[in-house]
Amino acid sequence: MTNRPRTKATPPRILVAVADEVLARALADPLADAGFAVTRLGNLSEVASVPADLVVVDRAASLEGDDALLTATGCALPIVALAAAEDSRAPAGAGGQVTLLRKPLRVQALIDGVRAGLAAGAGALHIGPCRLFASSRTLVGAGGETVRLTDKETQILTRLAAAIGRVVPRDILLAEVWGYGAAIATHTIETHVYRLRRKLAQAVAGGASLIRAEDGGYLLAATP
After folding, report:
1. Region class of 78: left (phi > 0), else alpha (psi between -120 and 50), else beta
2. Homologous superfamily, domain 1-122
3. What share of the chain is helix, strand, coil (3-state, %, to 5)?
4. Dihedrals phi, psi of 4, to nearest 5 degrees
5. 1-122 and 123-224 share one CATH topology?
6. pTM surpassing 0.85?
7. Which of 84, 118, 76 is nearest to 100 (CA)?
8. CA–CA separation, 117 vs 100, rounded Å?
9. Whether domain 123-224 has CATH 1.10.10.10
């Protein structure tokens, strides 16, 4: 997999490896407008030959899932995989870091998901004074304190981190973490966020205040 270093001024390079022309254009255009350097590919086999920092795929395009096909070939790039609401399969565990985004997808959710994937692929997301290693679901405090998160807690924190300083509505979290139409109780998000805030408090003093409930959603502050 080609993954050449970039200069600081060079925008992140995103591959949109989606065969469907309409979907590929709907993904590539807003990413380009957001400042990413976007290349569209129609075939996964071409991914290894194009310098990139992240690849976007549609896992519904194949029975196995395009994220699974890429990681099976040893893809080292972070992967953002679009998934249908009813797709309950876990992201492929080998190879690159995989971020799932549930359809239907809003433009801002796509951009935030790509940013989260790039950050996770770089090794860690910075959550105030903490670091989140999404692949191992581990939160590390400034003093080296280690707290393990559940898969859902990791997804919530990663999504909030991608939109840091902005409110992520509850319905967006429901759609992207649990999937549209998921049969869950109305208090599910509140329960997970409550537990997540407690774990942030374990990792760093004042960490619970990093996540705030505002305007029908949640916001991740830059500092506790």
Report:
1. beta
2. Response regulator (3.40.50.2300)
3. 40, 20, 40
4. -80, 150
5. no
6. no
7. 84
8. 9
9. yes
